[in-house]
Specification:
The protein is mostly helical. The chain is 41% helix and 7% strand. It has one domain. It is built from 5 helices and 4 strands, in the order ααααββαββ. Helix 1 runs antiparallel to helix 5 and helix 4 packs antiparallel against helix 5. The model has no long low-confidence stretch (mean pLDDT 86).
Amino acid sequence: MKTSNRFNNAISNLYKAFHNDTLNPNDCKQCAVGNILNNKDNWKHFTDIHGSIQLNYIGLVHQNLGRKFNGYTPIELLKIENSFLRSCGYELGKNHCYKPEMNFNKIILFNGLCEVVSLLCQFDGIPNVMDCSALFKYNKHSKGLKFA
Protein backbone atom coordinates (compact mmCIF):
# COMPACT_ATOMS: atom_id res chain seq x y z
CA MET A 1 0.00 0.00 0.00
CA LYS A 2 1.36 3.38 -1.00
CA THR A 3 1.14 6.10 1.64
CA SER A 4 1.87 9.82 1.52
CA ASN A 5 4.90 11.52 3.04
CA ARG A 6 2.67 13.40 5.47
CA PHE A 7 1.13 10.13 6.64
CA ASN A 8 4.52 8.43 7.04
CA ASN A 9 5.96 11.39 8.95
CA ALA A 10 2.91 11.66 11.21
CA ILE A 11 2.94 7.94 12.02
CA SER A 12 6.68 8.01 12.67
CA ASN A 13 6.37 10.98 15.05
CA LEU A 14 3.42 9.44 16.88
CA TYR A 15 5.19 6.08 17.17
CA LYS A 16 8.28 7.72 18.68
CA ALA A 17 6.21 9.80 21.09
CA PHE A 18 4.21 6.79 22.27
CA HIS A 19 7.27 4.63 22.88
CA ASN A 20 9.36 7.44 24.38
CA ASP A 21 6.56 8.40 26.79
CA THR A 22 6.35 11.88 25.29
CA LEU A 23 2.71 11.68 24.24
CA ASN A 24 0.62 13.85 26.54
CA PRO A 25 -2.90 15.13 25.77
CA ASN A 26 -2.46 17.91 28.33
CA ASP A 27 0.48 19.52 26.52
CA CYS A 28 0.02 21.24 23.14
CA LYS A 29 3.59 20.33 22.16
CA GLN A 30 3.25 16.68 23.16
CA CYS A 31 -0.32 15.88 22.15
CA ALA A 32 -1.15 14.12 18.88
CA VAL A 33 -0.92 17.28 16.76
CA GLY A 34 2.02 18.67 18.70
CA ASN A 35 3.98 15.52 17.92
CA ILE A 36 2.90 15.48 14.28
CA LEU A 37 4.21 19.06 14.05
CA ASN A 38 7.59 18.20 15.59
CA ASN A 39 6.66 19.39 19.09
CA LYS A 40 5.50 22.84 18.02
CA ASP A 41 2.40 24.44 19.51
CA ASN A 42 1.64 27.17 16.96
CA TRP A 43 -1.36 25.12 15.79
CA LYS A 44 -3.21 25.88 19.04
CA HIS A 45 -3.88 29.40 17.74
CA PHE A 46 -6.20 28.01 15.00
CA THR A 47 -9.09 27.72 17.49
CA ASP A 48 -10.22 29.47 20.65
CA ILE A 49 -11.15 26.30 22.56
CA HIS A 50 -8.79 23.36 23.02
CA GLY A 51 -10.28 20.33 21.29
CA SER A 52 -12.68 22.32 19.14
CA ILE A 53 -12.91 21.83 15.39
CA GLN A 54 -14.14 25.41 14.96
CA LEU A 55 -11.48 27.53 13.26
CA ASN A 56 -11.04 31.05 14.63
CA TYR A 57 -9.95 34.03 12.54
CA ILE A 58 -6.29 32.98 12.47
CA GLY A 59 -7.23 29.42 11.58
CA LEU A 60 -9.56 30.58 8.83
CA VAL A 61 -6.89 32.81 7.31
CA HIS A 62 -4.41 29.92 7.15
CA GLN A 63 -7.11 27.54 5.87
CA ASN A 64 -8.30 29.94 3.16
CA LEU A 65 -4.73 30.64 2.04
CA GLY A 66 -4.26 26.89 1.60
CA ARG A 67 -1.46 26.67 4.12
CA LYS A 68 -0.38 23.28 5.33
CA PHE A 69 1.63 22.27 8.35
CA ASN A 70 3.63 19.08 7.84
CA GLY A 71 1.13 18.38 5.06
CA TYR A 72 -2.07 19.00 7.06
CA THR A 73 -4.49 21.90 6.81
CA PRO A 74 -5.59 23.75 9.95
CA ILE A 75 -9.01 22.03 9.95
CA GLU A 76 -7.37 18.62 9.57
CA LEU A 77 -5.11 19.36 12.53
CA LEU A 78 -8.09 20.37 14.67
CA LYS A 79 -9.94 17.20 13.68
CA ILE A 80 -6.90 15.10 14.61
CA GLU A 81 -6.65 16.72 18.02
CA ASN A 82 -10.39 16.46 18.60
CA SER A 83 -10.30 12.75 17.80
CA PHE A 84 -7.31 12.17 20.08
CA LEU A 85 -8.80 14.06 23.02
CA ARG A 86 -12.21 12.38 22.75
CA SER A 87 -10.55 8.97 22.67
CA CYS A 88 -8.53 9.88 25.75
CA GLY A 89 -11.70 10.67 27.69
CA TYR A 90 -12.01 14.43 27.28
CA GLU A 91 -15.51 15.86 27.21
CA LEU A 92 -15.61 18.30 24.33
CA GLY A 93 -18.41 20.69 23.58
CA LYS A 94 -18.97 23.74 21.45
CA ASN A 95 -17.80 26.09 24.19
CA HIS A 96 -15.79 23.91 26.54
CA CYS A 97 -13.14 21.25 26.98
CA TYR A 98 -13.21 19.24 30.20
CA LYS A 99 -10.13 17.23 31.05
CA PRO A 100 -10.79 13.88 32.71
CA GLU A 101 -9.61 13.42 36.29
CA MET A 102 -7.22 10.56 35.56
CA ASN A 103 -3.71 9.66 34.65
CA PHE A 104 -3.19 8.83 31.02
CA ASN A 105 -1.82 5.30 30.91
CA LYS A 106 -0.55 3.48 27.83
CA ILE A 107 -3.93 1.87 27.16
CA ILE A 108 -5.74 5.20 27.02
CA LEU A 109 -3.01 6.76 24.88
CA PHE A 110 -3.00 3.74 22.55
CA ASN A 111 -6.77 4.01 22.10
CA GLY A 112 -6.32 7.68 21.28
CA LEU A 113 -3.62 6.86 18.76
CA CYS A 114 -5.80 4.21 17.11
CA GLU A 115 -8.46 6.85 16.48
CA VAL A 116 -5.89 9.31 15.15
CA VAL A 117 -4.37 6.74 12.79
CA SER A 118 -7.84 5.85 11.56
CA LEU A 119 -8.52 9.51 10.82
CA LEU A 120 -5.15 9.97 9.10
CA CYS A 121 -6.01 7.01 6.87
CA GLN A 122 -9.38 8.60 6.03
CA PHE A 123 -7.66 11.87 5.12
CA ASP A 124 -5.36 10.03 2.70
CA GLY A 125 -8.07 7.72 1.33
CA ILE A 126 -6.28 4.54 2.39
CA PRO A 127 -7.56 1.53 4.34
CA ASN A 128 -7.33 1.83 8.10
CA VAL A 129 -3.98 0.26 8.95
CA MET A 130 -5.15 -0.27 12.55
CA ASP A 131 -8.15 -2.36 11.49
CA CYS A 132 -7.14 -5.94 12.21
CA SER A 133 -10.28 -7.28 10.52
CA ALA A 134 -8.47 -6.64 7.25
CA LEU A 135 -6.29 -9.63 8.17
CA PHE A 136 -9.33 -11.89 7.95
CA LYS A 137 -11.51 -12.71 5.01
CA TYR A 138 -15.08 -13.44 5.94
CA ASN A 139 -17.28 -15.38 3.55
CA LYS A 140 -21.00 -14.73 4.18
CA HIS A 141 -21.84 -18.20 2.89
CA SER A 142 -19.53 -20.06 5.27
CA LYS A 143 -19.74 -20.35 9.05
CA GLY A 144 -16.22 -19.35 9.84
CA LEU A 145 -13.35 -17.02 9.24
CA LYS A 146 -10.65 -17.67 6.70
CA PHE A 147 -7.19 -16.23 7.10
CA ALA A 148 -5.90 -14.03 4.31
